Amino acid sequence: MAEILKVQNLSRHYTLNGTTIKALDEVTLGLEEGRILGVVGESGSGKSTLAKLVMALDRPTSGEVRLDGDNLFDLSPRQLRAARRNFQMVFQDPYSSLDPRQTVEKIIAEPLHLDPDAPKGRARRDRVGELLEDVGLSAADVSRYPHEFSGGQRQRIAIARALITKPRLLVADEATSALDLTVQKQILELILKLRAEHGISVLFITHNIGVVDEICDEVAVMQHGRLVETGPARAVLDSPDKAYTRQLLAAEPTLEVIGRKARRTATR
Amino acid sequence: MMLSIENLRVSFAREHGDPVEVVHGINVTLDKGETLGIVGESGSGKSVLSLATMGLLPRTATASGKILLDGEDILSMSERQLCRVRGRKIGMIFQEPMTALNPSMRVGAQIAEGLRLSQGLSRRAARAEALRLLDMVKIPRAADRIDSFPHEMSGGQRQRVGIAIALALKPELLIADEPTTALDVTVQAEVLDILDELVSELGISLILISHDLGVIARITDRTLVMYRGDEMEQGETEQVLRRPAHAYTRKLISALPNRVRSALETPDG
Which Gene3D superfamilies does its entry note (chain B) (predicted)? Predict the structure, then answer.
């Protein structure tokens, strides 16, 4: 299958008081059309830097991000704007990522300025309504404001906004981390449904291994700006190659031994 | 019996309209050395319950019922009396160590502050005790770190300083509200181990508030499941997780990633 996203030897270094910090260091990754790639790592692993570069919100020190073969950093500003409708992002915090003074219609339709042929007026409102239904809200919600919605509903609005330009790649940066467990499950199910219906590819950035196991086809494990290992999610999680991956998996809270007395006996 | 919460109700005054009740009659008891987990999603009332127990409810809140700590009711204490309870009888650990610590004060001085104010220790004695506490929470090379500022430490180290402050006055009860939620998993595991070890060694009772069933399972003897201010169920943690009695607990467990949940189905691991 065709690779929609190809990250090639991507680096982002910062120089601070004469010392160089390698936030991202020679990372190479590929994502095939219609697949979900999880990028997992702890703070400082470079996963959010990677997301920013894939979204062309920052420029790399070296390396390439190819979307459908084109290196984003070779495009002219005009070409980049046109390309942007093909990749959209969902952020972590649905309370700060939606403008509180805009109606849901305005929020969701906002990315349409990237598309000169975008529907206007009535047709635009209908398109927003369809998307709201798609993400499990109601078309009647168009004229409401963000504060009228719960965190999970807001994240659905953020997803609808990301989908309006019919992107081929969705970048989700900790998109379920601020949500309650039962709401997280609903959002994960929504992402799987959207993939099934629209064939969208997803770069899913998270610190949560359980979530990777739940929805990702492939996984890339990162640490200190470097790629530790990558492969099919099931294979990497079941039999990790690298010591760091094993350490990460071992630290994950499990329910194998419950209660502190039981745990004492088990570890003895 | 050390802590006994009886029919606790908490409501908040609103600018317009009647007060809104957010905790609807919770009963909890906790013995010396016991650990209780309180689990629930946002809006479950778990944090309001812990604030009430510390006597830290905001002015707009009204509480009824009883919160008896060694027989004395927290809810009927004056601020003066509460000041003698907080820190000395009840220690508290907060979620975000960067905001809970004073950014402009060296960590050693922050640990020593309570010791000097409430135990009247000399500057030198308080510093020695602060160093001992930093060692106890396993800050590596504690003597070199005692004069660090919070921003010079990692998140995990900052939370260990938070634990050291909470334990400084040797409280009987420790309340930890999402103490590891802001931390990476590998750091979370270390901090939970330290917390578990100290609570057991010192015979302290612990109330651990968390949205994470994995954290609750790791460290608590008993668990209270809350939803929208009500108790859903309460019991031995193992019972609650393996044989949930309430539909909400089952819903919570079914929302866990498969990977975590699957362990519940094979009790032998």
Answer: P-loop containing nucleotide triphosphate hydrolases (3.40.50.300)
